[in-house]
Amino acid sequence: MNLPKTDRELEAKHRALWALGDYAVIAANIVRPLGPVLVEASGIGPGDRVLDVAAGTGNAAIPAAATGAQVTASDLCPELVEEGRRLGAEAGATIDWDEANAEALPYDDDSFDTVLSCIGVMFAPHHQQAADELVRVTRPGGRIGLIAWTLLLVFLLVSQRGLLVLGGRMAVNAFAADGSNTPGGFGQRLVRVHANCVENLPLLAGALLYAIASGQSSLTDPLAPLVLGARLFQSLMHLVSTSALFVWLRFAGFFVQLLVLAWWLLLLAGLA
């Protein structure tokens, strides 16, 4: 699959972005413990053909290979691919590594029994295109296993739309991108909540990842539960109602997150 010029330029920017900093430190502290959980939940075993998309340094690929599966790992960033090869070799894992874009995977249709991505493909700029690729390379009856920060909201959105279609209330191709034509307005709120999570993620996650990579996580850890609680509160208020009261409550949850973020930035900069 060939990418248009604009997407090739975006691909180059993403490749350069993921080459910055010390991803291995971040992976070891945040992502790596999730890999074995995903592998177990996906039911991977000896002889299975497995692809780990946006594999990073092998957080899911290495534990998948440990089960006796035939594992291929792909990532957009060559630096991460090389680090993954090194870590895989240290772990005694047999893995085929490829540099590849999740939106244009270089594999034939129906090539794998299971396709995984652990906090990886969620960062692809075009989610539908990436999802289509995951489905394309998975054999009929195969499995796709993902861990993503906003997956619960996606599950709720898909479930709600599925019930509307199965109940004959909407055609499968009738949904507006922003959910504005969903009966009752709940679907639109789901879409907006999901968008809010994605929009807020770079700010908060950026501060946390920098703290971990620079060995300053002790500065951010105490208030991290408060941020999570405020984020959940904001999402719940968004789902419950769009009345003025709930909009103010939503803003209160968001404002708490901004205050904590500002405090974190002052601490990390040594100004507080």
List its traits.
five-stranded parallel β-sheet; Rossmann fold; globular; 2 domains; 272 residues; 5 strands; alpha/beta
Structural topology:
Elements: H1 5-19, H2 23-31, H3 34-41, E1 49-52, H4 61-65, E2 70-75, H5 78-90, E3 95-99, E4 112-118, H6 127-137, E5 138-147, H7 151-166, H8 186-213, H9 217-220, H10 224-240, H11 244-268
Parallel strand pairs: 1-2, 1-4, 2-3, 4-5
Helix pairs in contact: 7-8, 8-10, 8-11, 10-11
For the record, the count of structural domains works out to 2
In CATH, the topology of the largest domain is named: Rossmann fold
Structural class: alpha/beta
In the predicted model, the low-confidence regions spanning at least 5 consecutive residues are none
* Helix count, DSSP H or I runs of 4 or more residues: 11
Q: What string gives the helices and strands in order?
A: HHHEHEHEEHEHHHHH
CATH class of the largest domain: Alpha Beta
Q: Strands of the largest sheet, in order across it?
A: 3-2-1-4-5
Q: What composes the largest sheet? A: 5 strands, parallel
Distance between the termini: 51 Å
- Just name the CATH architecture of the largest domain: 3-Layer(aba) Sandwich
How many DSSP E strands? 5
